[in-house]
Specification:
Distance between the termini: 41 Å
Helix content: 25-40%
Number of strands: 17
CATH architecture of the largest domain: 3-Layer(aba) Sandwich
Strand content: 15-25%
Radius of gyration: 21 Å
Structural class: alpha/beta
Number of domains: 2
Number of helices: 12
CATH topology of the largest domain: Aspartate Aminotransferase, domain 2
Shape: globular
Strand order of the largest sheet: 4-12-11-10-7-5-6
Order of helices and strands: EEEHHHEHEHHEHEEEHEEEHHEEHEEEH
Bound molecules: pyridoxal-5'-phosphate
């Protein structure tokens, strides 16, 4: 292919700042661009390619499904939905699932559940508590729930009904709702992803759970990025003993086939009645086969244990190596969801790392984000650090702190 593959397209809307690379194929934790250059994939399509690339079992299952039935609409029963729902219920201890196609759609469904609960209670303006630095998606409701002014800019008026509080501050939350009569839910990421890899503390999760029980609110968690095994548990909140009432999933659920889900416990499972919510593509046979096979492979290959073990190893190696550099702040995260905070904006590292054969991202301006496939080995994690270290070292030397 010619170099045109990486030129800005005259026909695709200009919504992304893209690295000048076009990827052509992948194998395991490696990808190759249209020029044949190899990269170690530390991003997995933003926590999507859980199983790495070209996993033979997933490929075979998808090929089989494509030849049988890709889509049929929700006018009919889709047996795969029952199979995936049963599995998600078993893994989460929750009770019912709605299938959609993306993270924002899962969050939109969660927010509609909260609205509907409020309307059912006779509230004129139901309110949902959300967090500073949260990211929930780009639809009007989910961008309004998002705690980032850059994502709000240009889209006023926002959807109303959100009360914003700092994460990990239960007193701040209680203070913010002190004069509110129509609160219906608290909604937050168990580990903030786009916000810079900031985990909600276990104690905070328990305090929010207790408050939601006491006030009869829904505890709703956005596990679109941190769910599906990424942290070494199926769902990040399972590092504690609490269960949410509503959980949004997407990214890792279908290994790259678009699929989202909102999983609800008994307090939220029956809020939607026929006609309240729907989607044309959601839960189609291809998406369900992808999710079912992804979960089966994760179980058979012990990928949760691998994510925990290799993630801890990777974090340790990052601390040992980058930790010595002037400009390093800290390593945060859980399992294969890792942020390395520097003391200065470092978005330039994305292109520099790519030149050195490594795909990474940067969030919240100064946090290097690593989201490797859950199949990564310790040797591959070491290779990742070996590729990252010289790039960060050189960057920090050449770009002094402001
Ligand atoms: C990516 C992400 C979303 C949005 O998902 P899309 O599939 O891009 O709509 C929502 N919440 C979190 C936590 C995410 O990481």
């Amino acid at each position: 292919m010619s170099q045109d593959a990486t030129a800005t397209s005259p026909h695709v809307m200009n919504t992304y700042g893209r690295v000048p690379i076009a990827l052509a194929r992948g194998q395991g934790v490696r990808v190759w661009d249209t020029q044949g250059r190899e990269y170690l994939d530390g991003l997995s399509g933003i926590a999507v390619n859980t199983l790495g690339h070209n996993h033979p079992r997933l490929v075979a299952a998808l090929q089989d499904q494509v030849a049988k039935l890709i889509h049929c609409s929700n006018y009919y029963h889709v047996p795969g939905q029952e199979a995936v729902a049963r599995k998600l219920v078993e893994l989460s201890g929750l009770s019912n699932v709605f299938f959609c196609n993306s993270g924002l759609e899962a969050n939109e469904a969660a927010l509609k559940l909260a609205r509907k609960l409020g309307n059912d209670r006779g509230y004129a303006k139901p309110k949902v508590v959300v967090c500073e630095h949260a990211f929930h998606g780009r639809s009007l409701a989910t961008l309004s729930a998002t705690g980032n002014p850059k994502i709000h800019a240009g889209f006023f008026p926002l959807i109303e009904g959100f009360i914003r509080v700092p994460l990990n501050d239960i007193e701040g939350l209680k203070h913010a709702v002190a004069d509110e009569e129509e609160v219906v839910a608290v909604f937050f990421e168990v580990i903030q992803g786009e916000g810079g890899i900031h985990p909600a503390r276990a104690q905070y999760l328990r305090q929010v759970r207790a408050l939601c029980d006491e006030r009869d609110w829904l505890m709703m968690v956005d596990e679109v990025q941190c769910g599906m095994g990424r942290t070494g548990k199926w769902f990040a909140h399972q590092w504690t003993d609490i269960r949410p009432d509503v959980m949004a999933l997407a990214k890792g659920l279908g290994s790259g086939v678009p699929v989202g889900a909102v999983v609800a416990g008994p307090k939220a499972a029956h809020i939607f009645q026929p006609g309240n919510h729907g989607t044309t593509f959601g839960g189609n046979p291809l998406a369900m086969r992808a999710a079912l096979e992804t979960i089966a492979i994760m179980e058979d290959e012990n990928l949760l244990a691998n994510a925990e073990k290799v993630g801890a190893h990777l974090q340790e190696r990052l601390r040992q190596t980058l930790g010595k550099l002037e400009g390093f702040v800290e390593v945060r995260g859980q399992g294969m969801m890792i942020g390395v905070e520097l003391d200065r904006p470092c978005g330039a590292l994305i292109a520099l790392a790519a030149e050195a054969g490594l795909l990474i991202s940067v969030t919240a301006e100064n946090v290097i984000r690593l989201l490797p496939a859950l199949i990564m080995t310790e040797a591959e994690a070491d290779e990742l650090v070996d590729r990252l270290l010289p790039v960060v070292t050189q960057f920090l030397q050449q770009k002094p702190a402001a």
